[in-house]
Amino acid sequence: MEKFVEKHQQKITGIISTFDRLIFKGYLALGYPEAMEHFLYRNDLLIKDFAPFAKKQSEILKQSAMDYAQRHGRVYRFLNGKTRKEELAHQIAVEDGVDEGLICVFAVVEQNPSFAMRYGEKRPRLVSCRPRCLTLYFYFMDRQVGFMHVRLQTWFPFMIQIYINGHEWLAKQLAAKGIGYQKLENAFLAIEDCKKAQKIADKFPRQRWQKILSSFARRLNPLMAGLLKGMEYYWVTDQAEFATDIMFKDPAALNPLYIKLQRHSTVCFSAEDVLKFLGRKLSGNFSGKVENHYKKRLPGARVKHRMKGNDIKMYDKFGSVLRVETVINHPYEFKIRRRAKRRGQKVMGWFPMAKRVTNLYRYAEVSLAANRQYLQALSVIDDPEASFRLLDKLCAPAKLNGNRKRAMNPVSLSDVKLFAAVMRGEHCIHGFRNGQLAEHLGMPLSKDKAERRRQSSRICRLLLLLRAHRLIAKIPRSRRYRVTLRGFKLMTAAIFLREEYMPDYILA
To answer: Which of 412, 411, 398 is nearest to 486 (CA)?
Structure first.
């Protein structure tokens, strides 16, 4: 990331890395049918009494929400049909001038995980289902967290969801510290002191989130002081977005560069490269889907790479902020150092990361590393004009061990096909061998020994040519080769040049 910033430091005003969208979910120990049945028994209720009992609690929650809105002098509104609740809450806050406290309460009917009674052979039982029930949305302008909302389902098992935005939290902290900033929606366009702001942002994962989230649950769920007394919510991070924002002076400074960046990320980043960005090694044991997506949207475009439900995205915000963002939906794909059992003994080691909210600091570490890897990969080709000047070196003959090798043509179809074969994503970690390069160049293994020798000689000559121009290097004590940093720069620039300016020729 430092290389990327260094190349464009004259255009950049600051950089900040912090959480963006965060969704926390709280679960009571009532999430499966057996637990719910035991809860009914403890309260001297039969399974057949579940529906009327649940309806009664739903009415209590509904009435409590209406009273809560009335006490704060805010609106309680039932929404029917599809409505952009967040935009409506923002509109109400602006119209009513709400700077702190409750903005509004919305009631909607939505699907939620719950239970239903089914008749069995000996007795009725509860089964899991997803009925439509009343769901409450509380929107706040919190003094510490900023704009946020709490979603509470009014039917057992009373799952709660809390949305928080890291940029909103940081804005509140900067204002409290007297650090000036310019912010539009969920992006900072400028910050007076980015170093101090980053130190504050780094404290976000270490906040006492369990205590903060539980306080909202107790405040908005009156059953916690009555029917559910003694029970506590177990908090998990259901979705986490961690953004690295690079702030440019103005749209004119970012727009031409962003066009080149999105072109490179869609043309030159293969699906295999996504594994490296998200900290995975390419191996035969990997089973899952890796995808690349490019989507145009006004006024710009978004590039997204996905691995098993986890994403890394790049897009521009308001024309002057370049955002690289890692989204973690399935943290089990990453590792965390913790104490756990291994072969029957408790040891300290690296184990799959769980969703528990106490692991938020590790979410930040993993996401920041992914963002840096992505920007590092972009830093070598983000200025095509500079790379194009380097291509002149390919157009001159080179020597290897005293032997003269021909010049290369950066726009020749045969040479660019060779570059593309060498730059394939699966070669990033372990390098490539003679046979792999032949396969990617469309030379299948021949059954004829003489033909195989001719193929092998041809590939050897190509390898010597690439080595003479210092595009690849031999891995010591092996028969494999790797791409050099010089090779990465030059071959990427050649591929980009052909794709950008010679679109009628399509590489096989």
So the answer is: 398
